[in-house]
């Protein structure tokens, strides 16, 4: 198998899946990655696999504008059957991807497939970043990422991956933190300046800056993102206790249910 790095991009042919593929193609073109475009069908549809393969190929052909520049090998198709969580784990073993991109759909019939417990389990079981695209995501070009940091070691370590991506992709990176008191705000500003100084020399071209919000974290983030639906929010999950992970999952689910912004989730 080729040593080229890969992106798993899950599709159910919805508008959010189209945006997901567009983001995947931008990453693939700039980072020289290969896209594995995946569609998961129920096991009882295996007898219709020829129709399913044609549909997957058509969706790919209609949206692969970047392939005109990169040749015919940018996107590889994978039609699989069964449980999406199990299939993601199998595909992760097969391709060792650097990124998974998945579209989110609000219709209840698909909650178990593209959000709900399944997406939480996927995030929990894979050890690579995941981008979630809400159904109402903006199709405008991605120009900015706001990375919500709590100043933990894991949160800072994520910048070692995120900054090079932003540099190569030409995306502006903004650090984001929510302070609930004036004292917290003063401390946060000092920590932000320290982070900027630490990374400035190696990643000056990114032009990283920071923004401090005030108030209750969940409400403050929602209000801020509501004003900027075109930006991506990035967060880091920490490998902690079950209950702490559960709270983090719940927060991400609540945020993605309330915003139109794509979300990039890292694991630490």
What is the multimeric organization of the chains shown? single chain
Bin the helical content.
40-55%
Q: Could you name the ranges where pLDDT drops below 50 across 5 or more consecutive residues?
A: 107-116
On the 0 to 100 scale, the average pLDDT is: 83
Question: Could you tell me the number of beta strands?
Answer: 10
CATH superfamily of the largest domain: HUPs
Note the main attributes of this structure.
268 residues, alpha/beta, Rossmann fold, 10 strands, 47% helix, 22% strand, globular
Explain what you see.
With 268 residues, this protein is α/β, with parallel strands linked by helices. The protein folds into two domains: 6-133, 3-Layer(aba) Sandwich (Rossmann fold); 144-267, HUPs (Rossmann fold, 3-Layer(aba) Sandwich). The protein has eleven helices and ten strands. The chain has helices spanning 15-31, 49-63, 67-70, 84-95, 111-114, 116-125, 153-157, 159-169, 182-200, 217-227, 242-258, and strands spanning 6-10, 34-41, 75-81, 99-103, 130-133, 144-148, 172-179, 209-214, 232-237, 263-267. A ten-stranded mixed sheet has the order 3-2-1-4-5-10-9-6-7-8, sandwiched between helices. The longest helix is centred in the C-terminal third of the chain and has 19 residues, at 182-200. It is globular and about 65 Å long. It starts with 5 loop residues before the first strand and ends with a strand. 33% of the residues are buried. Mean pLDDT is 83; it is low at 107-116.
């Amino acid at each position: 198998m080729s040593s080229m790095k890969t992106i798993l991009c899950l599709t159910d042919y919805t508008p959010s899946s189209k945006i997901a593929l567009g983001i995947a193609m931008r990453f693939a073109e700039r980072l020289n990655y290969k896209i594995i475009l995946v569609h998961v069908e129920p096991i009882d549809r295996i007898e219709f696999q020829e129709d399913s393969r044609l549909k997957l190929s058509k969706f790919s052909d209609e949206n692969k504008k970047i392939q005109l520049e990169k040749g015919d090998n940018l996107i590889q198709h994978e039609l699989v059957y069964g449980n999406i969580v199990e299939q993601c784990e199998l595909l992760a073993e097969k391709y060792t991807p650097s990124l998974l991109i998945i579209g989110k759909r609000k219709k209840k019939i698909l909650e178990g497939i593209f959000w709900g417990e399944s997406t939480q389990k996927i995030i929990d079981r894979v050890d690579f970043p995941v981008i979630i695209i809400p159904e109402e995501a903006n199709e405008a070009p991605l120009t900015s990422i706001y990375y919500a940091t709590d100043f933990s070691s894991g949160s800072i370590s994520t910048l070692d991956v995120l900054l090079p991506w932003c540099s190569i992709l030409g995306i502006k990176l903004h650090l984001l933190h929510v302070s609930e008191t004036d004292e917290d705000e003063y401390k946060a500003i000092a920590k932000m300046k320290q982070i900027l100084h630490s990374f400035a020399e190696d990643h000056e071209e990114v032009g990283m800056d920071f923004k401090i919000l005030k108030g209750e974290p969940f409400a403050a983030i929602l209000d801020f993102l509501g004003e900027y639906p075109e930006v991506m929010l990035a967060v880091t999950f920490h490998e902690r206790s079950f209950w702490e992970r559960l709270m983090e999952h719940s927060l991400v689910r609540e945020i993605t249910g309330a915003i139109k912004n794509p979300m990039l989730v890292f694991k630490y």
